[in-house]
């Protein structure tokens, strides 16, 4: 799931998704000139009413000063899980906008990427440090890089791996996103070095790939230079599709990572690209922040061709908040874009909540 990832933390205030549900009632008229509706008429009325009730609504989440960068949706519990760059926690968000702390692990400085791994009943969370969190080392930002695994029912930690201990390179790191293959292997991408990490189900980590194709080229004035990988999805064909902040995509065959190559796009994604969502048909929805332009964030549909060697890009929607940072699934097959108030976070301003906006993906 999920969503430079400016995501890089510059994204905007997030709206959490809400969907009203209801049951249509067919009325039987008793006054003169009105009789009971036919079965066909009643069925059409019920279908129309149910469709109306399932129309997604934008929802304001009540989590003050949470500042989420990404989130994911659990269909079984009808719940969103959102990270906090400020508190280093992960919260549950109900469709009515109620926010409750679910994971509060002292090892998490800032919780950026959040992925619900339903097959293994866990939540994966990337651990980062922009220097703005309650637990930050203010004078040494981007020195924390890790991924934690937490029980989906209790929020208890399974493991939390320190990826700086894997590289031992003394460089700045930012684990912008994580995805999971069907066998349970997790892959995490580093926004500040051209490194993809592989993490097995027990939390044992190694360097999966280093490649200059993944080197960051986008500069964010007065914040970060050389911003690279912002999002990642595992796709059919046992491949990783990696979004670069500059609007390009890179395809990495898992069995032959040395054969990584840039995807030939019909048009580049908007830059900085912030988040991805894998759709049921194997295509991808992407959100591109308007951070550098001040224009509304763009939702784009990316349709693969020739096994993801090529892809067609089409803008399908926009979000008024320029710094929208992620896209995720929602109830009834919907897609929501997250605006987490990250501009306020970086400016040192308080925030009274965040929002999710329903968006079109085709």
TrEMBL record:
Keywords: Signal. Residues 27-63 are annotated as: Disordered. The keyword GTP-binding does not apply. Residues 1-26 form the signal peptide. Residues 43-52 have a biased composition (Basic and acidic residues). Residues 27-40 have a biased composition (Low complexity). The keyword Lipoprotein does not apply. It comes from the Bacteria. This is Uncharacterized protein. It comes from Streptomyces rugosispiralis.
């Amino acid at each position: 799931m999920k969503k430079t990832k400016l995501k890089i933390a510059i994204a905007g205030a997030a709206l959490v998704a809400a969907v009203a549900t209801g049951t249509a009632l067919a009325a039987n008229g008793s006054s003169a000139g009105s009789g009971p509706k036919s079965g066909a008429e009643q069925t059409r009325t019920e279908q129309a009413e149910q469709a109306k009730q399932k129309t997604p609504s934008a929802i304001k989440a009540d989590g003050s000063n949470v500042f989420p960068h990404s989130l994911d949706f659990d269909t079984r519990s009808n719940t969103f899980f959102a990270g906090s760059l400020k508190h280093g926690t992960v919260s549950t968000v109900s469709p009515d906008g109620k926010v409750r702390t679910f994971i509060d692990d002292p090892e998490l400085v800032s919780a950026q990427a959040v992925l619900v791994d339903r097959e293994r009943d866990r939540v994966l969370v990337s651990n980062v440090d922009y220097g703005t969190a309650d637990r930050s080392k203010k004078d040494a930002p981007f020195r924390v890089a890790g991924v934690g695994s937490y029980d989906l029912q209790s929020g208890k930690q399974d493991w939390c791996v320190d990826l700086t201990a894997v590289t031992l390179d003394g460089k700045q790191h930012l684990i912008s996103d994580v995805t999971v293959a069907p066998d349970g292997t997790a892959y995490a991408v580093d926004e500040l070095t051209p490194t993809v990490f592989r993490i097995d189900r027990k939390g044992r980590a190694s360097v999966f790939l280093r490649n200059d194709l993944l080197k960051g080229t986008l500069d964010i004035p007065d914040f970060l230079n050389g911003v690279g990988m912002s999002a990642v999805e595992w796709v059919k064909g046992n491949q990783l599709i990696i979004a670069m902040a500059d609007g390009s995509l890179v395809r990495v065959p898992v069995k032959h990572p040395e054969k990584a190559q840039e995807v030939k796009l019909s048009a580049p994604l908007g830059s900085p690209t912030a988040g991805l969502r894998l759709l049921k048909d194997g295509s991808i929805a992407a959100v591109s922040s308007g951070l550098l332009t001040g224009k509304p964030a763009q939702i784009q549909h990316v349709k693969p061709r020739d096994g993801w060697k090529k892809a067609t890009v089409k803008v399908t929607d926009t979000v008024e908040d320029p710094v929208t940072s992620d896209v995720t699934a929602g109830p009834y097959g919907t897609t929501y874009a997250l605006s987490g108030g990250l501009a306020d976070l970086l400016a040192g301003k308080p925030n009274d909540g965040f929002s999710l906006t329903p968006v079109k993906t085709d």
